Amino acid sequence: MDDYKNRSYGAVPIGMKGKVGIVVIDYQLAFTDTQYPLGGAPLVMRGLENTSRLLKVAREHNIPIASCFTAYKSERDMPHWKITAVREQFRLDHPSSALDPKIYDSSYDVVVCKTGPSIFFQTSVVPYFIKEGVETVIITGCNTSGCIRASTIDSFQWGFRTIVPEDCVGDIEEGPHRDNLRDVGRRYADISTADEVINYIKNQKA
């Protein structure tokens, strides 16, 4: 028995409509390079590969892409993170802050440095998407239970149709990954796949 379902949670699908924009959250070397404490989690690496595949198609179809990394000047301008690796390495001058080349095209992508969990918090991403006429936001990146969840909620709060391709996001452990997708899927977003988003983009009228 699913009491959430019985109480109508998740009953109304959002669907993709109009122009899509893609956010790519924190696929920086800190999370994708195994030399760093947070790097190389299997679900994150799977998400990186599928996001790379999605972005290739998106760029071919002139889809707006906003990527972000998380970094600070010093520990003094950080929020009160409880993660040692973030406190010690997430600095603007640290090599782990660089975006992974598998998902980043410097000639195409808009890039912001974020200082909180959400890519939308105090950044220029919302004005950029409004200017581009975006109606549906595709959420990719890591980690599902942290920055993906926060960005999904903010996308919802800004009034965008919000889609999270399950295979384009990742986390340290599978349990939090699944639990958070299930929960945002009940309330704020549709859970989809890279292939479904790719098909929508390819079939969208110019």
Automatic annotation (TrEMBL):
InterPro entries: Isochorismatase-like_dom (IPR000868), Isochorismatase-like_hydrls (IPR050272), Isochorismatase-like_sf (IPR036380). Keywords: Hydrolase. The keyword Phosphoprotein does not apply. Residues 22-195 form the Isochorismatase-like domain. Pfam families: Isochorismatase. The keyword NAD does not apply. GO terms for molecular function: hydrolase activity. This is Maleamate amidohydrolase. It comes from Paracandidimonas soli.
